[in-house]
C-alpha cells in the first residue's frame, strides 16, 4: 500500500508540475529566471512552513544540515534558474517533453552512484526513449520558437539536477520526513535566489506586475512548489527514485493541455510521438525489475 501511495503521489506531483510549466511560460516574460525562482520557492516555503511546524516528523539532524543545504541549493536554487530560463526559448509542451527525460537520467545517475544497477534492458530502454525525444524535438523545430533548441537543452540540464536530487535525497528523507526535509531544503534555495534577485534588481522590477501575473506567481508557489514538491518527497520516502521519476511522463500531457488552453500553443504530432517513445523506453527499462520483483513475491516457482 505504501508503494502505491508513493507512485500516486508522484503522478499527482507531475501533473501539477505540467500545469506549472504553462503558468511559468505565461509569466516568464515579465521577470527574469532568478526572480521567478525566488518568488516560486519563497511563496512555496511560506506555504510549507506552517504544515511542517504542525507535523510530528523529525527535522533533519544537525549532521545532515550540510547535505540538506547542498541539495536545496541544487534543486531549489540551480534547478529553477535552468527551468525558468528554458521557457524563455521553448513552449510548455516542448519543455515538458524535454523534462520527461528525467526517468532515464535518474536510471543513469542511480547506476553511476551504485544505487540501482544499469542492465542491458535498461540501457536499451534509455536509448529508445532518448532517440524518441531527440526525434520529436528536432522534427518539431519548424513549428517551435526560433531558439527552442536552447530551451530544450536547458530543460534537460534542469532534469539532470532533479535526477541527482531524487537519488541523493531519498536516505535523508527516510531519516527525517518529507515535509520537514522539503521545507528546510526549499528555504535554502529560496534565500539564495532572493539574495541574487535583490542584488540584480529583479525584485524592484516586480512593481509593474499585474494581477494576472501575481495570480500565476501564487499558483506556481503554493501549488506548483509547496504541494508538488511535498508530494514528490512523500513519494521518494515510499518507493524507489526511478519509479518516482517515471511518473514525470504525466508532465507533458498536463503541460500540453494547459499550454493549449492558457497560451494557445499547438499540440503537434512530434509531441505525441516523443511521449510515446518515452513511455515505450521506460516500459522496457523498468519491465525487468518489475518481473523480478513479482517472481520474488510469488509463492510458486516460475515456469
Automatic annotation (TrEMBL):
The chain crosses the membrane at residues 38-54, 66-89, 95-115, 124-142, 148-168, 180-200, 212-232, 244-263, 269-288. InterPro entries: AA-Vitamin_Transporters, EamA_dom, EmrE-like. Residues 5-137, 150-285 form the EamA domain. It is found in: Membrane. GO terms for cellular component: membrane. Coiled coil: none annotated. Its main location: membrane. Keywords: Membrane, Transmembrane, Transmembrane helix. It is a multi-pass membrane protein. It holds the Pfam family EamA. SUPFAM superfamilies: Multidrug resistance efflux transporter EmrE (SSF103481). Belongs to the EamA transporter family. This is Permease. It comes from Bosea vaviloviae.
